[in-house]
């Protein structure tokens, strides 16, 4: 079976890292022979080629509306072996469905919706279009089980949790080395954010929490890039550092004492799973499937999106009780190993591919 992916994006964000990890697991399993299709040249394409995957690019540059991608995709599918197409994100989902209506050769179509970020009229329109045309896919998967109810026909929608390959958490020496390399103060409790710096991801709440705790031994770090980079850069001070886009995310996590997810909207955050894998204590909003991954007081301290006071209070509590922080991190690590390994996700998608072939 050949699984092809339609994906796009600059930088290796959550969706792109999901595609990369899944393709590697599928190739290693021998059950699937994956190749990638992307709209335009991007970091994901570069990364997959470096890992030895075949990558096809549909357009020469990134476009808000990928007008040339449809005919290019039709030509590509016409010239290759029939495949199950697995698309990621609203643009890829809609273009693949359009190709199917135009007679594209495929064994089946699995469409994945990671999350719907309605940050503008355009994204609201595209997300609604994605949902309303879902009947043209054989199987639709979502990273947040609650998303299924938004589809006109939930019967063909499956919840597939994101997964990651396991790796050992950094030891104390690696943590000290990373902290020194990044210049984090040794006498402060470092709380790190890793996401796009957009309002929907809650970065403004992290900046506000840093302001509210300026006189306390907390050190807030914002890593990522997006619409609010200038606000994050301007807010820097003794207890707040803005790093921008971070390429070496493992080293970044190694330097932290805790991880914060402040999102208003999520599917199942890959950064959250990476923090769990690293054994970090977690502060997180109850957005999307977060509560399916971590439980309040067991693997994380949870708070409502927008509740800056609750975020600041949870951060203080962790900093004042290192034993409780270590217990949360250990529990998060154990839950990751039990529930969110890449093999579980690979098997779930393999079942979806087989179901898609059966419907086509």
**Estimated radius of gyration:** 21 Å
Helix content: 40-55%
DSSP strand count: 13
| The top level CATH class name of the largest domain | Alpha Beta
- The fold-level CATH name of the largest domain is Rossmann fold
Overall tally of domains? 2
Q: What's the rounded overall pLDDT mean? A: 92
Most strands sheet: 7 strands, parallel
The CATH homology group name of the largest domain: Glycogen Phosphorylase B
Low-confidence segments:
none
Question: Between the first and last Cα atoms, what is the distance in angstroms?
Answer: 14 Å
List the secondary-structure elements in sequence, H or E: EHEHEHEHEHEEHEHEHEHEHEHEHHH
General shape: elongated
What topology does this entry show?
Blueprint: E1 3-7, H1 14-29, E2 35-38, H2 43-50, E3 55-57, H3 69-79, E4 84-88, H4 90-101, E5 108-113, H5 121-132, E6 139-142, E7 157-159, H6 172-182, E8 189-194, H7 203-212, E9 218-223, H8 229-234, E10 240-244, H9 249-254, E11 258-261, H10 270-277, E12 282-285, H11 290-293, E13 300-303, H12 308-320, H13 322-339, H14 342-359
Parallel strand pairs: 1-2, 1-4, 2-3, 4-5, 5-6, 6-7, 8-9, 8-11, 9-10, 11-12, 12-13
Helix pairs in contact: 1-14, 3-4, 4-5, 7-12, 10-13
């Amino acid at each position: 079976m050949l699984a092809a992916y339609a994906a796009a994006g600059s930088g290796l964000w959550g969706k792109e890292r999901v595609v990369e990890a899944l393709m590697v697991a599928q190739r290693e399993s021998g059950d699937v022979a994956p190749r990638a299709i992307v709209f335009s040249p991007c970091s994901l394409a570069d990364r997959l080629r470096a890992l030895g995957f075949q990558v096809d690019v549909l357009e020469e540059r990134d476009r808000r509306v990928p007008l040339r991608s449809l005919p290019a995709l039709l030509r590509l599918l016409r010239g290759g072996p029939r495949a199950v197409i697995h698309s990621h994100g609203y643009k890829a989902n809609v273009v693949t469905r359009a190709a199917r209506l135009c007679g594209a050769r495929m064994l089946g179509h699995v469409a994945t919706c990671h999350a719907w970020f309605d940050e503008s009229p355009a994204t609201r329109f595209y997300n609604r279009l994605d949902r309303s045309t879902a009947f043209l896919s054989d199987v639709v998967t979502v990273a947040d089980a609650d998303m299924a109810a938004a589809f006109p026909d939930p019967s063909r929608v499956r919840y597939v949790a994101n997964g990651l390959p396991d790796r050992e958490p950094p030891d104390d020496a690696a943590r000290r080395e990373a902290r020194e390399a990044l210049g984090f103060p040794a006498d402060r409790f470092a709380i790190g954010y890793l996401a796009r710096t957009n309002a929907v991801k809650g970065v403004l709440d992290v900046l506000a929490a840093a302001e509210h705790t300026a006189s306390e031994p907390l050190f807030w770090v914002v890593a990522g890039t997006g619409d609010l980079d200038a606000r994050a850069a301007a807010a820097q001070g003794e207890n707040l550092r803005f790093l921008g886009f971070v390429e070496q995310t493992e080293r970044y996590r190694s330097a932290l004492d805790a991880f914060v997810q402040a999102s208003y909207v999520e599917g199942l955050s890959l950064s959250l799973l990476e923090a769990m894998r690293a054994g970090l204590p977690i502060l997180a909003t109850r957005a999307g499937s977060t509560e399916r991954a971590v439980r309040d007081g067991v693997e994380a301290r949870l708070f409502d999106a927008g509740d800056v006071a609750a975020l600041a209070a949870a951060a203080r509590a962790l900093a004042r009780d290192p034993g409780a922080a270590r217990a949360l991190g250990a529990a998060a690590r154990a839950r990751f190993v039990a529930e969110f390994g890449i093999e579980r996700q690979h098997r779930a998608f393999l079942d979806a591919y087989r179901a898609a072939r059966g419907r086509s």
